[in-house]
Amino acid sequence: MPWSSDNRPIIVPPSTESLGKRNHDLRNRSTGVYQQYPCFAVIVALVQANETIAGWIYDPINDAMISARRGEGAWEARLRLTPTRPGKVPDMAGSVGTRMRRRLETMTESGTPGVPTLVKRYKCVGREYMDLARGKLDFCNYGGKLKPWDHAAGVLIHAESGGYSARVENSLSYRVDRHARPGNLLLAPSETAWREINRVLPR
């Protein structure tokens, strides 16, 4: 989303040419992924001064929408999302990248205590954020470029459902970065759980 000189968000409709090219690129990139992982989502965020003030994630396959406005909770239809979350890391289920998954599986095989349950990556960050808000996932870890079109809406929705998130490298809250600089973002049920999960996850 473009920003004005005074940090107000601007919505710019795409030209027919750019929209057609974008749709073509998306079809080419998503067809194979969809065949293996039949899920995807539409993510929209309203951002002002590098902070998300509203977010929407839509699952067109199941016709489900989760949305949030800052300070007003996270909602799915008329249901406010306030999931009950497990208190101990071994009882939690979450999603991590391939390299970290392999390290955690090795830790489990060697009998290392306190390792959480791993859920196969959805290959769709929007759907993972939806299940974080519902309590079907307890934590997620994302590394690399933290693109706002992937994370801006989801981080707000997760927070409004009672979750806690921060960047691993400096423990600071996520802020929208139009340049999508690299980082490591961990989302957890609470600040205490965040610290406990962060101690367990190999780096």
Describe this structure in words.
It is a single chain. The protein has one domain (about 40-203): D-Maltodextrin-Binding Protein, domain 2 (3-Layer(aba) Sandwich), CATH 3.40.190. The chain is about 35% helix and about 25% strand. It is built from 5 helices and 10 strands. Strands 1-2-3-4-5 form a 5-stranded antiparallel β-sheet, with helices on one face. A 5-stranded mixed β-sheet has the order 7-6-8-10-9, sandwiched between helices. The two termini are about 30 Å apart.
Descriptive terms for the model:
203 residues, alpha+beta, D-Maltodextrin-Binding Protein, domain 2, five-stranded antiparallel sheet, five-stranded mixed sheet, 33% helix, disordered N terminus
Q: Topology, pairings included?
A:
Blueprint: H1 16-36, E1 42-48, E2 51-59, E3 64-69, E4 74-76, E5 79-80, E6 93-95, H2 98-109, E7 117-118, H3 125-134, E8 139-145, H4 148-160, E9 164-167, E10 182-188, H5 191-200
Parallel strand pairs: 6-7, 6-8
Antiparallel strand pairs: 1-2, 2-3, 3-4, 4-5, 8-10, 9-10
Helix count, per DSSP?
5
How many domain units?
Answer: 1
CATH topology: D-Maltodextrin-Binding Protein, domain 2
How large is the share of residues in beta strands?
15-25%
| Cα-to-Cα separation, first versus last residue | 32 Å
Widest sheet, order of strands: 1-2-3-4-5
**Rg:** 17 Å
Helical percent range? Answer: 25-40%
N-to-C SSE string, H for helix and E for strand = HEEEEEEHEHEHEEH
Q: What characterizes the major β-sheet?
A: 5 strands, antiparallel
> What's the overall geometry?
globular
